DNA sequence: TAAATTATTGACCAATTGATCAAAAAATAC
DNA sequence: GTATTTTTTGATCAATTGGTCAATAATTTA
């Protein structure tokens, strides 16, 4: 068996494919678009990824991983957990508009676009969203234990609210392009929960 | 010139097409899917609508019209404007899940799916969303004049917030299926603005 | 009823879709 | 350095795509 000599390339390829899928969606991206973007001929392409759906699956995980990295980074640069989460929200909603192919969350775009015909991709997206919600709810509990959040706050409920806001605000930005309105609404998210 | 003998049928056709587009999206719906759903052969189909994009455009307006009708209906059945808007939110987010083809807003699905390649459809969807926001902001002003809302509330800002919540909550419902969480969050929307 | 107009039909078209495969090239093993 | 395995290549496939069109059928006008 040959050693996997193309490991780095595979990550690059998945990353390029992710960006294209994020921009144009599953049905809007043809396998030829993808093959051209990643500079692979059909044989290599299908040998490496099996099918368009499998590559999309990997692209979803690539997207989610990057999103989680941004959360970690925001947390480590912030003086408190709550400020870290708020910095993350600001970063993902407003701070990358010129660097990414869409204002909207790729997972949200996926559950919006796809139906039962791609049930696995929908389920995968839902699961990744739920994972982020759980992650945030854990962080909020830590923040609460550190005295950043009022004691009566239910952190699971607040995490749900954060995800709803993220979904709503990113969609609203795509719809209206109104950064200052979105900025105001981000500031309100934790306003009644903070100490 | 022949009389338009098929006026009623055309509305029925647009309505069926709207439901199919709403469920499967623009790229996910083929012209054959549409032709079968509305029982028209290609010639009649293209004579009536010109192109897939034009029919989608009509479908967007059909969707928006129905949404506005639901708002009017909610208002007329409610004892106050604010309660009418809240009833509308409840109705559109939770009250139709078994009667419509998707939990999510068709306009949101459209701006999520499409790119500059269908710029007109994106612009149309954005405009219809903005129209609803303006409508709600006017209603809130009426409610404020009637003493239902605190005087210091900015009704344009609150209308923005309502649209963000609608986008977020409908997407969250699609993602999580958690009706009770959504129900709780709807109740919170006006909680700090009411008198 | 006859002529003129409009609507419907289904065959058809060129382009694109996701995917396969045998041959050629490159890399590894011996 | 040769033999074996793996990768890459580009032609190709069947199916589907959005859309056209001449022939037929149904209406309307007169």
Topology:
The structure is a homodimer of 195-residue chains.
Chain A: H1 7-28, H2 31-38, H3 42-49, H4 52-76, H5 81-93, H6 106-113, H7 119-145, H8 155-176, H9 179-188
Helix pairs in contact in A: 1-2, 1-4, 1-6, 4-5, 4-7, 5-9, 6-7, 7-8, 8-9
The first copy, chain A, binds a DNA duplex (30 and 30 nucleotides) through helix 3.
Please give a quick description of this structure.
The structure is a homodimer of 195-residue chains. Chain A has 195 residues and is mainly alpha-helical. Helices cover 73% and strands 0% of the residues of chain A.
Residue ranges of chain A: pLDDT <50 for 5 or more in a row? 1-7
What oligomerization state is this entry in?
homodimer
User: What is the approximate shape of chain A?
Assistant: elongated
Helix content of chain A: over 70%
CATH class of the domain at 59-188 in chain A: Mainly Alpha
Task: Indicate the proportion of strand residues of chain A.
Answer: under 5%
CATH architecture label name of the domain at 59-188 in chain A: Orthogonal Bundle
Rounded Rg of chain A: 19 Å
What's the average pLDDT of chain A? Answer: 95
Ends distance of chain A: 59 Å
Question: Helix-strand pattern of chain A, N to C?
Answer: HHHHHHHHH
Q: How many strand segments of chain A?
A: 0
Instruction: Tell me the number of helical segments of chain A per DSSP (H or I, 4 or more residues long).
Output: 9
Which two chains form the greatest contact, residue counts included? A-B, 38 and 38 residues
Structural class of chain A: mainly alpha
- Write the CATH fold name of the domain at 59-188 in chain A: Tetracycline Repressor, domain 2
CATH superfamily of the domain at 59-188 in chain A: Tetracycline Repressor, domain 2
Main sheet makeup of chain A: none
